[in-house]
Amino acid sequence: MDRPEFPINEEDFNRWLVDKYFKYGSVDEVMRKYRFSLPISYASYQRVLDRWGVIKKAGPNNKLNEAIDFITHLAKDNIPFEMLYKKIPPTFQTSATTLYRILGYVKEGLTRRVGVGLIITPYNKRSKVLVANDFSAPRIKLGKSYGAISIPMGYARKRDSRKTNILRILQHEVFVKEVVKRTFPYEILEENLDPFMYLDIADVRVAIYHLQLGKKLSSLKNFSSYKLKDFQYLSCNKIIKDDHKLKLRAGVKEAVLGYKKYLALLNRNLSVNPFQIKAHLNQELEVVFEYES
Predict the structure, then answer these.
(1) Cβ 130 vs Cβ 152: under 8 Å
(2) What are the backbone dihedrals phi and psi of residue 91, each rounded to the nearest 5 degrees, phi first?
(3) How distant, in Å, are the alpha carbons of 25, 39, 48, 72, 74 from that of 56?
(4) For residue 145, is pLDDT > 50?
């Protein structure tokens, strides 16, 4: 096999490395993809990412939406766990053991991990929310469409600051090209970042934040990601009213409902403590558990 060609210029090569990290999700995956022929060591690759200010993914089991999609099918399609698990493709990374553990936590009403979700609005329309089609989770072959509509959302680390956890989602799911070009808009991250709600989805407690973009950043052409495609702004009312037609990912409707409640309180000049609710998916699973018992 011919040796692949890499950019010769050091700056171009470093940008290429950063881009491939976002595309494949880890340095290990990039190394494997290019059959360990990269003209750079593992440690040097990590140092390049550090110089670019890249926030690494939150742990090895980082596919929050993969697990959510599986559990959503389990709750809605009335199919035994083993039968559903046999239908998933080889690219599905979450093990059966992990999925059983998630279901166990949900059954007990517990959360074991944390996540971040972002309600992003343009500069002049707080009633419109940035969403996109998430193509990162492998297709579960039950005749369902691929690419559920989602807000930017993923795992976080408990030991990281709120700013770091938000930055991770923005880098991986909204502004990949800006990170690669070293033009990431850090100015959108305020000093005091507080979630307006906590949403329990499966066994993950997701802190939901609101970010309003400036005029220059609000254009859809600014957004890029290897995970999310076809970015668009949708009105809160459309997301809530047409949730089944839009084929939303679990938790999106609840996040938008919470955001509308948050805006209503702000408009009344009231202080807002974060809401805490369970996703409808969790409520459906609780009914299943009660029926089985």
Answers:
(1) yes
(2) -75, -10
(3) 9, 22, 12, 27, 31
(4) no
Q: Which pair of structure tokens corresponds to residue 134?
A: 């998430």
Helices 96-108 and 280-292: angle between axes, nearest 10 degrees: 90
Residues 28 and 67: their CA atoms lie apart, in Å, by 22
Report d(CA 227, CA 210) in Å as an integer.
Answer: 20
**CA distance linking residue 71 with residue 29, whole number of Å:** 26
Strands 204-212 and 113-121: parallel
> With the C-alpha atoms ordered 158, 161, 166, 171, is the resulting torsion angle positive or negative?
negative
Q: Is the pLDDT of residue 61 over 70?
A: no
Query: What does DSSP say about strands 148-150 and 275-278: parallel, antiparallel, or unpaired?
Result: unpaired
Q: CA 160 to CA 154: how far, in whole Å?
A: 14
Task: Report CA Rg, the chain.
Answer: 20
The 3-class SS string of 119-151 reads EEECCCCCCEEEEEEECCCCCCCCCCCCCEEEC
Q: How many CA atoms lie within 13 A of 233 on its CB side?
A: 18
Structure tokens at 49: 């990412």
269 Cβ neighbours under 8 A, 6+ residues apart = none
Phi/psi at 34 (nearest 5 deg)? -100, 25
Question: What count of other Cβ atoms lies within 10 Å of the Cβ of residue 136?
Answer: 21
pLDDT digits (tens, 9 = 90+) for 182-193: 999 999 998 788
**C-alpha distances in Å from residue 20, one per residue of 54, 59, 130, 173:** 12, 18, 25, 14
Q: Which two tokens stand for residue 112?
A: 């074991």
Percent of the chain scoring above 90 in pLDDT: 61
